[in-house]
Amino acid sequence: MLQIIKQILRTGIKTEAPPPTDDALRGEIQQINAQILHHIGRALAIRHIDAGSCNGCELEIHSLSNAYYNIEGLGIHFVASPRHADMLLVTGPVSRHMEIALKRTYDATPDPKLVVALGDCSCDGGIFGESYASCGKIANVIPVDVTVPGCPPTPSAILQGILTAVSSCKTP
Amino acid sequence: MRLDDCTLLFPKLPSAMPIWHGVVNAQDLRTLCEQVLHGGGKLVALWGSDATERGGHYALHTGLVSISGMLVLTLPVDQEKPDFPDLSDLFPAADRMQRSVADMLGLHPTGGGNHRKWLRHAAWPSDVHPLRKSFDRNSTFPTEPDNYPFVAVTGNGVHEIAVGPVHAGIIEPGHFRLSVVGERVLKLEERLGYTHKGIEKRFEDMTLQQGAKLAGRISGDTTVGYAWAYAQAVESVTGTAPPARALWLRALLLELERLLNHLGDLGYLGNDAALAFGFAQFWILKEDLLRMNGDLFGHRYLMDRIVPGGVACDLDHAGLLRIAETLRHLEHEIAILKDIYDEHAGMQDRFLSTGYVAPDLAAKLGLTGLPGRASGQAWDARAQFPCVPYDQLDVNMVTHRNGDVAARVTMRFEEMVESIRLIHLMLEQLPAGALMSAVGDAAEGSLGIGWVEGWRGEILVALHVGKNNRIHRLHPHDPSWQNWPVLEHAIMNNIVPDFPLINKSFNLSYSGVDL
Questions:
Q1: Helices (H), B344-397
Q2: Average confidence score pLDDT of chain B
Q3: Cα angle vertex B487, ends B164, B378, to 5°?
Q4: CA–CA separation, B427 vs B349, rounded Å?
Q5: Range of B341's domain?
Q6: Can you point out the beta strands (E) in B213-361?
Q7: Nearest C-alpha of chain A: how many angstroms from B73?
Q8: Residues of A in contact with B221 (CB under 8 A)
Q9: Residues B290 and B403 both lie in one domain
Q10: Are strands B58-66 and B69-77 parallel, antiparallel or unpaired?
Q11: Coil, strand or helix: which one is A7?
Q12: Strand order in the sheet with B184-191
């Protein structure tokens, strides 16, 4: 126990400031109005769905929980069920074998909800494209609020996407 | 036919690795497989191909490894009666590979083996085979119910827990059907294939150069391993010899990838045993390494750094010093963390004897890579069939015989120490010179094999060349093919809450086997 405490003290605090939001990431829709977003943004529950990714984007989602990005410190946490979630964080091109599971998970998430699509494949199908096995981008299957490009996007970019989704759109 | 004659009878492929390729008939295929098995060898990969449109035939290919190297055997398969001898009685790991060949190419194993579908769910009908050349990649079909026939366990008090494809954690999708009595698991049945996105068919539109990017995205956590194996295959068919500096840098990247994944796994293994401290500590170290990769090589996970002909990155003197310093810190920290893990009674209680795979079972089922070495299966291509630069570094293979979660944890610690030692040697001996060699033309119909010891185990990339330097057929093989079925055995008689821990101690790829 003493050794653990010693190591924690020696490590110190690593957490860095979160990135600013970016309106360029917004899609055409915004599923939640500003007033509700204000509340959700302070205690956000995210359900991650891998809809057919190569596992690259997942690595960076994991990184969000490390001490540097410390996503839980911002009031954002990952939940085990879509029924507990405010936001779906979806990766991959949607494989046809995941199409039904993705739609069902979306339906199981209570309204109002947000969807953030993560990675190049989720934005436009990426290198896998559309085929007998792939439906391509996430927006081909469920509505998407914010897309975050990158292969994989860095943890900062993902965090920026999440924070953009929960901040209300500037008035046009 | 005698196995010993193969290296004399069959041509050796122009490759960095010892690989022979021969065309055999069904009887010789069985005989040679039996000899490989009885000599202590194993099946690495099994795949099919369709050359009917260029005047050829269907074929079944197997990659077998024995002490002298790899033997790739090609069995031509009759178009009218497309079947091949079942090999799953010799190599149980062949079962899912054969079922995938049946789904994707319509070539069927004869005999009484398992004939259930594997990669096909509901996206295309059973009489359609996407890897046949006559199949259009963009065809779509109305989705039908999957109706996969799971094996039902019956008896007093038995019930099923169905998990996935969308899991509770942040992991890839797959379905696990656990049959339990109380907390005790009687049987686990896996259903994978959810991330099947047509990777193999996608390769068939590509040139040899274009394929490199896709190869690096077969399994994102093993991007270096796949990119190197792919590059080896291309270099084999084009007669390209990459410069020495490129080969040394490739190995450096491969060891960095091993470190990244082992660090991440050790963090999660702590977390799954309720020691959040472990996750926090290991993931700080992992992030330090990722940032170093980003700064020095331009990509945190080193994607697209290895390309056919060489590497697309370099390392200057300041970079060498940065890596050396980062690794010295890493080595110091993991020594402290190993002490903490080893001395933590709560963790050891969760780790010891959990998810046990006995060495004889591991041998029978063909358990490979890191979990294999934790159960006494001493295979590591870096040590046994070392290519440049491993032939100059004298790699120490880590093995254990305890076969439980604790052994797989210890494996990771010890492999990290070895990787750090290897990287220090690479930094000292890194040769100067060019980073790329020009890649020549490949002859249509030639076969190239890439074979790399990734962090999970051995990766094989089989490349069949088409016209004009294009890919005719490409099969990437992940060691997870061999290890997923063994996970079903490892969980037996353990309690349900230990499943995530056991699963994490294997950490197998979904995308890499769903393709």
A1: 345-351, 359-365, 369-374, 381-384
A2: 94
A3: 145
A4: 39
A5: 243-356+398-436
A6: 306-307, 310-311
A7: 29
A8: 55-56, 59
A9: yes
A10: antiparallel
A11: helix
A12: B158-163, B175-181, B184-191
Torsion of CA B479, B480, B484, B487, to 10 degrees: 80
Residues of A in contact with B223 (CB under 8 A): 56
β A87-91/A114-118 pair status: parallel
What part of A 19-38 touches B (C-beta under 8 Å)?
A: none
Pairwise CB contact (< 8 Å): B194 & A129: no
- Taking a contact as any Cβ pair under 8 Å apart, which residues of chain B between 201 and 230 contact chain A? 201-202, 213-214, 217-221, 223
Distance CA B405, CA B412 (A): 11
Beta-carbon pairs below 8 A across chains A and B: 165
Which stretches of chain A score pLDDT less than 70? Answer: 28-36, 39-41, 168-172
pLDDT tens digit sequence for B44-70: 999 999 998 888 899 999 999 998 899
Predicted local confidence at residue A39, as pLDDT:
66
- For A154, which of B279, B300, B509 is closest by C-beta distance? B300
Shared domain for B402 and B289, answered yes or no, is yes
Could you tell me how many helices (H) and strands (E) chain B has, helices first? 17, 14
Regarding pTM above 0.90, the answer is: yes
pLDDT for position A141: 96
Query: Is A149 domain-assigned?
Result: yes
Is some CB atom of chain A closer than 8 A to the CB atom of B349?
no
* Angstrom distance (rounded) from CA B128 to CA B126: 5
**Domain around A113:** 25-166
Residue B430: CB atoms within 10 Å: 17
Given this model, what pLDDT does residue B1 score? Answer: 80
In CATH, what number is assigned to the domain containing residue A71? 3.40.50.12280
Q: Specify the length of chain B in residues.
A: 515
Strands A114-118 and A146-148: parallel
Backbone angles phi, psi at B464, to 5 degrees: -105, 125
A97 with B122: Cβ contact below 8 A? yes
What is the pairing mode between strands A44-50 and A87-91?
parallel
Question: Are residue B318 and residue B418 in the same domain, yes or no?
Answer: yes
Three state DSSP letters for B326-337: HHHHHHHHHHHH
Q: Is the ipTM of this complex over 0.85?
A: yes
B432 CB-side CA count, 13 A? 2
Cβ contacts of A3 on chain B, cutoff 8 Å: 336, 339-340, 343
**B404 and B265 in a common domain:** yes
Give me the DSSP letters along B66-98: ETTEEEEEEEEE-SSS-EE---TTT-TTHHHHH
User: Which B-chain residues 262-291 have CB contacts (< 8 A) with chain A?
Assistant: 264, 277, 279-281, 283-284, 286-287, 290
The answer to whether residues B220 and A56 touch, using CB atoms and an 8 Å cutoff, is: yes
Point out the residues of chain B with pLDDT beneath 70.
Answer: none
